[in-house]
Design brief:
heterodimer; A: mainly alpha; ABC transporter involved in vitamin B12 uptake, BtuC; 0% strand; globular; B: 352 residues; alpha/beta; Rossmann fold; 2 domains; 3-stranded parallel beta sheet
């Protein structure tokens, strides 16, 4: 690499570090913005409309929720191939529970089903984690078994018969016609989110000052708050600009999207700030040194898989509620979409490196291309080919970027 | 992806088969009674729910005709199916019914049957040989009936086509049948195809997202959705419900209970139903005719994958619409309570 470009890289890194920004994330957002603009032009102005962005946010929720967990799984040098099958199995189980076991009407049915589905996910993850950590069987093999087992179990527990309709309250969790929080509450959530950003930036600055670390200038902090607030308010405005069919009633933020946002923020906090997350990264970076440093890597592994299972339960709730049916084929091959989103988002398959935000952006990029190409009327095989190329290109660019940094 | 999946499955199954051989297990052949004339049936994967219905149909014909039903299950492994047919033939069969796992890998077994003078019925799935009688549902008719019922509900306007997985060649047969009906109307400009999407693995959730995008792209100006199976139609219905459009003509295939209920509620137009019991009966009748050296009534020539001609018996599937829902109830495919759940005013005849 020529010296000039290295110098440019160093300078840009320094500027970004001073501003407290993640260069990689910025680059990905830039790529996504470019893709969105291109799709907007190619679809004759249909892509960047409230309606399509509303669709997109709903469509990305399921893969997004699972990607948050997959980041930690891959960072800890494991893989979970069973996530798609788990979603299918838990979905059929949850639908059976509502439709055949509990009375179909009433909110209680919904909440029992939700708890049972989350619990099932956690349990599946726990078992896979235990087998991986204490049985010393590679997670690839355990979860490959899980993939086959739960895909067929999904078929077996109801002989492949699709179950519908589902509980009315449960359907709301899928973000259908009534599954949004409406304009007023959307603004309330928006205001709360902005307040949280302000508190975080302020507290972060104070903590840095207390520990004598380099602080950003007050102007930079204000700029950061402004960017975040604009983003949050803009998103809320878009969701509110989309109205119910044949009326002027604003839809507002769909419940699955709210779930995705909460999961993203929580998982990101766990990954970056919480001791558990730090240990996972340490373990992924070097399992031996992590163990020598007194980290119980086996327990961490179990926890990571259990968390992944719980998120599969959550994703299954959203996908089943959204479809308003428990179908055994649901989630087939979704594991590949989840892994692809995570990897496009910069998580290294070698372990130790990755971000939750990145995975969400990765999922958004994939879903944008997919949804955009349907709007364009691109033939389906061609869509898949494009997505495959994007996956390879994204990882390749990332490798080049990382390679140039380590030298 | 599908390929690697199949490969993996095959590898695992091969492992399981080796294990079975290692334990000295002989193919588990089951005979319902000893002696007399026998029809041998080789299933490719009996664990799937549907084949029990076929089996009941076969048995219902063989028993009264004085034939013994003998069967073996290949458990999804083409290798094991070869051994199965081998063992069945050596146990003396008057005719064989084979549901092949692989249309070409089974050919050596067909040659063996021919040498032994045992006539073979290729059941439901094709076998690429001129020496067998192919008994199946007419998949072109599936597409045709689907389109006919849809055109009856709405013969103009903007249509969206939701097709199955592009990697499965059977969708070409369905499409050929659909186009027999639709092409003239499309050429006249009466029907406009505003969108066409293939759905990966026929998944309902993918169909839902695709339909959301199609409705966004056309600004809800879709008058009918021709979906190739019931799973995908469930996804489409969810997308239509989001736009309060449930009730526009929508098709499917398989007779899913959920879909039959939607038809009763007026939320879907048609599902193509294939009564597996009837197919089993037809195959058993043909097998007996062949065993007795008679010609099979109603057989027609059929072109195989490699272009060879084989005799065939293709059953017409049935289009189930609001008007003939009683057929599925009478066949005990679905209970009346399940069919009519949530049906409001103006119930279909079957729910009265």
């Amino acid at each position: 690499m020529p010296a000039a470009s290295i110098r440019a890289r160093i300078i840009s890194d320094k500027v970004a570090a001073a501003a407290g920004l993640d260069v990689r994330l910025l680059a990905m957002l830039l790529v996504m913005a470019t893709i969105w603009l291109a799709l907007h032009i190619l679809t004759d102005g249909k892509f960047l409309t409230p309606r399509n962005l509303f669709n997109l946010s709903l469509q990305v929720a399921v893969v997004g929720i699972m990607s948050c967990g997959m980041v930690l799984v891959i960072v800890s040098r494991h893989i979970d191939l069973s996530v798609g099958s788990q979603v299918g199995f838990i979905g059929v189980f949850g639908a059976l529970l509502q439709n055949s076991i509990l009375p179909i009407n009433g909110a209680a049915t919904c909440w029992i089903a939700v708890l049972a589905m989350l619990g099932t996910g956690l349990l599946i993850g726990l078992i896979q984690g235990l087998l991986t950590a204490y049985g010393r069987v590679p997670s690839f093999v355990i979860t490959l078994g899980g993939l086959l087992f739960f895909r067929n179990a999904a078929f077996y527990i109801n002989s492949g018969v699709t179950i519908a309709p589902l509980n009315k309250t449960f359907q709301l969790l899928g973000g259908g016609l009534d599954g949004t929080i409406g304009a007023f509450w959307s603004w309330v959530v928006c205001a709360a989110a902005i307040a949280t950003v302000v508190v975080f930036v302020w507290r972060g600055a104070r903590r840095r000052a207390r520990h004598g670390m380099a602080t950003r200038s007050p102007a930079m902090s204000l700029l950061l708050i402004a960017i975040w607030s604009a983003g949050i308010a803009g998103f809320t405005a878009i969701m509110n600009a989309y109205t119910q069919p044949k009326s002027t009633v604003a839809m507002g933020v769909p419940i699955p999207v709210l779930i995705l946002i909460v999961v993203t923020v929580a998982m990101s906090a766990i990954a970056r700030k919480h001791r558990f997350g730090r240990h996972v990264f340490a373990m992924g970076g070097s399992p031996e040194s992590a163990e020598l440093a007194g980290i119980d890597t086996r327990r961490m592994t179990v926890a990571v898989f259990a968390l992944m299972g719980g998120l599969c339960g959550l994703a299954s709730i959203v996908i089943t509620a959204r479809l308003n049916a428990g179908a055994s084929v649901t989630g087939t091959m979704t594991e590949l979409n989840v892994i692809a989103a995570t990897v496009i988002g910069g998580t290294s398959l070698a372990g130790g490196v990755g971000t939750v935000y990145g995975a969400i952006v990765g999922a958004l990029i994939m879903q944008s291309l997919e949804s955009g190409m349907i709007l364009m009327g691109v033939a389906t095989p061609l869509q898949r080919m494009v997505l495959a190329l994007v996956l390879i290109a994204a990882v390749w660019v990332d490798m080049v970027y990382r390679g140039s940094r380590s030298t | 992806m599908t390929n690697s999946g199949t490969l993996l499955r095959r590898a695992l199954l091969a492992g399981a088969a080796l294990l079975a051989l290692g334990l000295g297990a002989r193919p588990d052949i089951q005979a319902s009674a000893a002696g007399g004339k026998r029809v041998c049936v080789s299933w490719r994967h009996f664990q799937e729910e549907r084949w029990r219905i076929d089996e009941a149909g076969i048995k219902s014909v063989l028993g009264p005709a004085g034939y013994t039903y003998v069967s073996a299950d290949a458990q999804g492994d083409p290798q094991k199916q070869m051994t199965d047919v081998d063992s069945l033939l050596s146990s003396k069969c008057d005719a064989a019914i084979i549901l092949a796992q692989d249309s070409k890998a089974i050919l050596p077994a067909i040659a063996q049957a021919k040498a032994a003078g045992v006539p073979v019925v290729a059941y439901d799935a094709p076998i690429d040989s001129p020496d067998v009688l192919f008994v199946s549902f007419d998949n072109i008719a599936v597409g045709r009936l689907m389109a006919e019922a849809m055109v009856k509900a709405r013969d103009s306007g903007n249509w969206a086509l939701i097709e199955g997985d592009a990697s499965m060649s059977i969708i070409n047969l369905f499409r050929d049948g659909q186009m027999e009906v639709l092409k003239p109307l499309i050429d006249k400009g009466q029907i406009k195809v505003v969108a066409k999407q293939n759905i990966e693995n026929w998944k309902p959730d993918i169909a839902q997202a695709a339909m959301e995008q199609i409705l966004t792209q056309t600004n809800n100006k879709v008058d009918a959705v021709l979906a190739m199976n019931d799973g995908m139609s469930t996804g489409v219905a969810a997308a239509l419900a989001e736009q309060k459009m449930l009730g526009i003509p929508l098709s499917g295939q398989d007779g899913d209970k959920v879909v039959l209920n939607r038809i009763a509620k007026g939320q879907q137009t048609v599902t193509i139903w294939k009564n597996a019991n009837l197919l089993g009966q037809a195959a058993a009748k043909a097998a007996i005719e062949l065993a007795e050296g008679k010609s099979v009534s109603g057989e027609k020539p059929f072109k195989t994958e490699s272009g060879q001609t084989q005799p065939s018996l293709l059953l017409a599937p049935i289009a189930i619409t609001r008007d003939n829902l009683n057929l599925v109830v009478d066949a005990k495919w679905i209970g009346k309570a399940e069919l009519c759940a949530g049906v409001g005013e103006n119930p279909p005849a079957a729910c009265k």
